[in-house]
Amino acid sequence: MIGVDLIGQIRRAYFEQQRPIKEIVRTLSVSRATVRKVIRGHATEFKYERGVQPAPKLGEWVEVLTEILEKEAKLPRRERRSTQRLFEELRVAVTMAPTTACIASPRPGGTNAPEFRSMPMYR
Predict the structure, then answer these.
(1) What is the pLDDT of residue 97?
(2) 104 vs 49, 68, 70, 89, 122, CA distance in Å?
(3) Threshold 0.85, pTM exceeds
(4) CA–CA separation, 69 vs 105, rounded Å?
(5) Closest listed residue to residue 96, CA positions, set 55, 54, 59, 53
(6) Is the pLDDT of residue 95 over 60?
(7) Crossing angle between the packed helical segments 62-74 and 83-94, to the nearest 10 degrees
(8) Average model confidence (pLDDT) across the chain
(9) Averaged pLDDT, 90-108
(10) What pLDDT, in 10s, does the model give residues 26-73?
(11) What's the chain look like in SS3?
(12) What is the share, in percent, of the chain residues with pLDDT greater than 90?
C-alpha cells in the first residue's frame, strides 16, 4: 500500500526536482506503473478494496468440517481431538490427499495407549 508520504516524495521528485521517472523508480524502489499512476492522478492515497470474496479452498467441505467441529464442541475438553487429528479426519472424509497417515485409535481393553494403523495411499 502506498501512503501519503511516498506519494509526496514521488510528486516532489517529478514536478519540483524535474527528475525522470526511471530515476524515481530506482531511488524510491517502486514500479514505473506506480510512479505514472501517482503523477497522472490526483489521489492522495491508494487503497485496494476487494469487491467480491473468492470462494474458500474448503468450498463444499465447509459443512462437513462444521459438523465435525460441532460434535467436538459438545465433548469434554479432555476428550477433544487436536487440530491435527481433526485435519486427518476431514481428509479421510473428503479423500483429498493421497498420502499415508497414521491414525491413532484406542485399544480395546481400556488402556489409553493408542494403537497406530496406517491408512491406504489411495482410496
Answers:
(1) 43
(2) 45, 17, 21, 11, 19
(3) no
(4) 19
(5) 59
(6) yes
(7) 140
(8) 78
(9) 57
(10) 999 999 999 999 999 888 788 778 887 776 677 777 787 888 888 888
(11) CECHHHHHHHHHHHHHCCCCHHHHHHHHCCCHHHHHHHHHCCCCCECCCCCCCCCCCCHHHHHHHHHHHHHHHHCCHHHCCCHHHHHHHHHHHHCCCCCCCEEEEECCCCCCCEEEEECCCCC
(12) 30
Cell of 74: 459438545
Q: Write down the residue that cell numbers 505514472 correspond to.
A: 36
Name the phi and psi angles at 74, rounded to 5. Answer: -80, -20
Instruction: Report the amino acid identity of residue 79.
Output: E
* CA atoms 71, 73, 77, 83: torsion sign: positive
